[in-house]
Every structure is written in C-alpha cells, then in structure tokens.
C-alpha cells in the first residue's frame, strides 16, 4: 500500500487514515459514460467506473457535484423524478439496467437503497421490516426473517421488546438502522446509501459505520458522503466528483478520479482531488 | 481555564444584566399583546355563539316531540294532524345518503389517487382538477334540476335513486379535492422508501400512502356525507315524497331535510314540532356517523407512538 510513502496526506486530516484495504473483486455494476439529465440540464457528465462485489465504494465531492444523482441512477430511482433521463450504460452483472424491457421494480428489488433522512414507514417496527418481504411475496417464517434483518442491522437488542411500537418512536440513529434492516430484509445484492449519517450524531454514525463493515461481507455497498473521514474509514474504493463550468458556462458534475481509497487519500492522481481532501477546495 | 479569564476581565466592562421579566417590557408592547390576545378569544366566542344557539334551539324545540316512536312512526298525510313521526324520513335519509356515499366514495377516492399519484400535472389531471373545482361550486338545486331533466324525465319516476344520484354528484367533487389534499401531505420520502424496496406504485399507494392519509380522508368524506344528508332542494325535486317508510331506492321517498322544509312551512303547531324533531334527528344521525367514522379510521390509521 502507499500508506508508508513519505507523501502521506492522511496525516493532514486527523482520523482520515484509510482503514479498508482494497482487494480486487469482480465488478457487480459497471458505469460506462453515464450522464444524467434533468430536462435539458445535464447534471452529471460522462461517468465511467466499476462497483466491485462485497466492497464499499464511496462517492465524495462538494455539494452539487452530482454524486447523489449518480447513486440514484444505479437503481433507477431517478425514474421517479419528472424529466430525469440517463444516457450511457449502467450494467448489473452485464445486463443494461436502462434497456427498454427492463422492469425498474425488479432492479430495485436487487439494488436497495437507504436515504439521507431516516424515513421509516409510520407503521410498527415489525411492519417496517416485514413490508419489503410482503411485497416480494414472502410469507413464511416472517418472525425469523424480521429478527434476522434487525440483527443484521445491529438493532435487535434495542427493539426486541417493542416490535409492535411505531418505528417513528425510535431515535434518529435507530430509525436509520431500522431503514437498513428494512433494506436488507429483502436480501438485495447491492445497497445504495445516500449520506446515511448526515442527520445523525457521532455515536449513531459510528454504529452505522461499524454496521457497514459487517454488511460488506454479504452485500456490495455504495455510499455517498460529504464526510471525507467517513469515506476514508469505511470504503475500499473512492470516487471523487466535482462540479465544473463547461465552455458555455453551465455547471456539470464530473467524476474526477476513481481509485482505491488508500490511493485517493494518500497519493491522489489529480490536483483537484488533493485540494479537496486537504481542505484547500475553494 | 475559562474561570481565570473571566476573573481577569475588569468588572466594569461587564454589561448590566438584562431584566428578562415580562413586566420589564414597554407598556405599549404589553398592551398590544393583551389586546391581540383578547381579540382572538373574543372572535372565537363570537364564532361559537351561532353554533351554540343552533344546538340549543334545536334540542329545546325538538326534545318535546322526540321519542323512539317518533323515529319509526309514519308521517301523517295531513300536516294538521298531531302525533305520527319521521320514520319514513329517517329511512329515506339513511338509504339515499347511503346510496350516494356508496357511489361517490369509491369514485372520489380513486379519482384523487389518480390525480395525486399518477396524473400529477398532466393535461388530463389538470382538466379533472378544474372540473372538480367547478362542480364544487354548482348550487345543489341546479344539480337537482340536472338529475330531474336527465334521469327522472327519462325513466318517468321520482325515486330515492334519483336523489342519491344528485347527492352523489354533489359529494364527488368534495371527496376528490379533500382526498387529494390529504394524499399530497404524505411525504414523498415514504413513497421513495417503498419504491426502493421494489414496490409497485399501486402497492405503495395501498400499503403506505393511503394508511398515512386515512384519517384526513375520512374527515373529508364525513364532511361530504354531512352536507349530502342535509341537502334539501335536489331531494324535494327528484325524490317526490313518502308517508310510509320506503327502504328501497325505487319509488317515491323523502328525507329528514325535505321533511324539515315541508313541515316548517306549515302553519300548524304539530307540523312545526315535527320539523324540529326532524332537525334534531338529522343532527344526531350526522353526529353518530362522524363519531363512528373516527373510531373506525383510528383503527386503520398508523400510530405515531
């Protein structure tokens, strides 16, 4: 690893020492020259990167750089936005997600999502987790499956006595873990996380980060985060996005650099990446 | 550390502690505050006066004739005769309003679901929205005339069904618009969360959006039902009249509102007493249904705690 080189940027950002060694794993998803449009506006331009199996990939960058937009293009959540359109190719095990006969519902059953703001359904804790199973037609061993998902999200011990009470009565951090439990209950292959800790305090954030380490053994995770230390702590690969003006003076998000997290944080290949992670970003 | 810095600071530079008590506020501000509060309480009391008087007068005048027999007995076919009851009108109100609700609630709720979950801002949805707004403003007597011309004259029979049609048409736009407002209040995050689990839109609507909005939807429906139960003009126009209970939708029928209108217009004290009794009965029926609807919807509604 490049951690031992004399030019070690991680020492400039306390707590940002990359901890997850990247290992080469087969790609589950592949983005080829992906651009996302809202109406006529091109929010993100030409993104090419790979999402590797059972690894955590972090998308970082300043506000408005299109990292969330790219994330939402991975399970066709952008379909729900009026006028949103994806150009280029997103493949999942080699299958084009935007091919004409692909059912977005089937896509989302395999590629789950956790949102920025914890958004449990206004139902009981049990019902929240069981919901995804029910809509997928799973009816047997419901109690076991719910317990498994809650254990998987490191929430079981805190809620096992009150499964019937509302998911909204939990704390913010617990709600977010409930949302993760809800997502993993349907056993997706990939979990997309859109700034899952931005509404949480440091302790709750720590719990979610630990959880992500545990989940990475079973799931492929893509996380969008504002927090560079978080990206350094949890991810194997990091993609740095930024927003730039084009010739016509219109802002577009662009992927600047995509590499192993260790490399991005210790020896970035691009000046803009270095500026951003050392805090010299304008 | 901090204490030493504070101690080191010369005492004279510390600002005088502000007086935080309310009594320290300028007189003008306190007077304005008190005046505005008083005005609001007064406005509330004034608004309650007509409501209180109506309830008081209806109970006072209606209680005299009220009895179990009054609720089931036939209406005397001569207004001057004392005794009798409002049984046919109670039957008519229940069957006609019930039929109107059975027609307009499913249509209205499904229409609102289309508007808010599917159509959104497309041309058809905008057209339906505008039409519903226009329909809300149609006077009930016009709706009665419409049904009279387009249905009663066609089948050559006044009937409870014709009245139910007119009342249903009056309820429909209210239900569509109030339900749509309630659906719009459901946060989009919930729809996205459901979609991200692989739920189809219909599934999301039925399992997440409707339960989240159910209590508001029921309130809107109850308002529409209460309004329909109290409508007079269309019923008088298209239902004809009845003196014995008619629990079917065909044939002449009558409602409490129509009977209030007819009996209150008579000079005879017996008829006036029946009008008050009918008014009390109508209010009680609406109250009972509203409470029942609340209880039922609270069972479906999702609990916050």
From TrEMBL, chain A:
InterPro entries: AAA+_ATPase (IPR003593), ABC_transporter-like_ATP-bd (IPR003439), ABC_transporter-like_CS (IPR017871), P-loop_NTPase (IPR027417), PstB-like (IPR005670). The keyword Transport applies. GO terms for biological process: phosphate ion transmembrane transport. PANTHER family: ABC TRANSPORTER I FAMILY MEMBER 17. GO terms for molecular function: ATP binding; ATP hydrolysis activity; phosphate transmembrane transporter activity. This is Phosphate import ATP-binding protein PstB. SUPFAM superfamilies: P-loop containing nucleoside triphosphate hydrolases.
TrEMBL record, chain B:
One of its GO terms (biological process) is phosphate ion transmembrane transport. Residues 90-297 form the ABC transmembrane type-1 domain. It is a multi-pass membrane protein. GO terms for molecular function: phosphate transmembrane transporter activity. The chain crosses the membrane at residues 38-59, 89-115, 136-154, 160-176, 208-229, 275-296. PROSITE patterns: ABC_TM1. Pfam families: BPD_transp_1 (PF00528). It is found in: Cell membrane. Part of the binding-protein-dependent transport system for phosphate; probably responsible for the translocation of the substrate across the membrane. This is Phosphate transport system permease protein PstA. It comes from Catellatospora bangladeshensis.
């Amino acid at each position: 690893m490049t951690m031992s080189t004399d030019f070690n940027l991680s020492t400039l950002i306390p707590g940002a020492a990359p901890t997850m060694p990247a290992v080469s794993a087969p790609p589950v998803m592949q983005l080829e020259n992906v651009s996302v449009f809202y109406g006529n506006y091109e929010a993100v331009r030409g993104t090419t990167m790979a999402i590797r199996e059972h690894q955590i990939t972090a998308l970082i960058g300043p506000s408005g750089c299109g990292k969330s937009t790219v994330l939402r293009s991975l399970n066709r959540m952008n379909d729900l936005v009026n006028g949103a359109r994806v150009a280029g190719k997103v493949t999942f095990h080699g299958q084009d997600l935007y091919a004409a006969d692909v059912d977005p519902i089937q896509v989302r059953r395999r590629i789950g999502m956790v949102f920025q703001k914890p958004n449990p359904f206004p139902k009981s804790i049990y019902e929240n987790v069981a919901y995804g199973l029910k809509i997928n037609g799973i009816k047997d061993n419901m109690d076991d499956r719910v317990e498994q998902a809650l254990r998987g999200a490191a929430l079981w011990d805190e809620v096992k006595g009150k499964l019937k009470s509302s998911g909204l009565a939990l704390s913010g951090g617990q709600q977010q873990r409930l949302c993760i439990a809800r997502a993993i209950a349907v056993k997706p292959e990939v979990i997309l996380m859109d700034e899952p800790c931005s509404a949480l305090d440091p302790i709750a954030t720590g719990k979610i980060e630990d959880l992500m380490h545990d989940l990475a053994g079973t799931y492929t995770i893509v996380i969008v985060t504002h927090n560079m230390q978080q990206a350094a702590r949890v991810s194997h690969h990091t993609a740095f996005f930024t927003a730039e003006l084009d010739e016509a003076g219109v802002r577009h998000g662009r992927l600047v650099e995509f590499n192993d997290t260790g490399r991005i944080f210790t020896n970035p290949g691009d000046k803009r990446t270095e500026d951003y992670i050392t805090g010299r970003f304008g | 550390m901090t204490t030493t810095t504070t101690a080191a600071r010369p005492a004279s530079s510390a600002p005088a502690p502000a007086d935080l008590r309310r009594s320290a506020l300028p007189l003008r501000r306190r007077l304005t505050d008190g005046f505005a509060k008083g005005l609001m309480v007064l406005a509330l009391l004034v608004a309650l006066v007509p409501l209180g008087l109506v309830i008081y007068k209806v109970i006072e005048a209606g209680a005299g004739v009220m009895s179990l027999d009054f609720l089931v007995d036939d209406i005397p076919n001569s207004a001057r005769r004392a005794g009798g009851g409002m049984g046919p009108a109670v039957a008519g109100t229940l069957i006609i309003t019930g039929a109107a609700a059975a027609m307009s609630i499913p249509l209205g709720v499904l229409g609102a679901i289309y508007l808010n979950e599917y159509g959104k801002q497309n041309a058809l949805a905008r057209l339906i929205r505008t039409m519903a707004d226009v329909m809300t403003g149609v006077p009930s007597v016009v709706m009665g005339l419409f049904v009279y011309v387009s249905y009663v004259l066609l089948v050559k029979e006044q009937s409870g069904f014709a009245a139910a049609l007119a009342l249903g048409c009056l309820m429909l736009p209210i239900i569509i618009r109030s339900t749509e407002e309630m659906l719009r209040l459901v946060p989009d995050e919930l729809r996205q969360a459901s979609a991200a689990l692989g739920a189809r839109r219909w599934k999301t609507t039925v399992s997440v959006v409707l339960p989240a909005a159910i209590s508001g939807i029921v309130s809107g429906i109850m308002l529409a039902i209460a309004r329909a139960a109290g409508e007079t003009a269309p019923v008088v126009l298209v239902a004809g009249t009845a003196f014995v209970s008619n629990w079917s939708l065909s044939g002449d029928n009558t409602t409490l509102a129509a009977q209030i209108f007819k009996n209150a217009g008579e000079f005879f004290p017996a008829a006036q007493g029946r009008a008050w009794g009918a008014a009390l009965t109508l209010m009680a029926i609406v109250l009972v249904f509203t409470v029942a609807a609340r209880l039922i919807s609270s069972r479906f509604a999702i609990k916050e705690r």
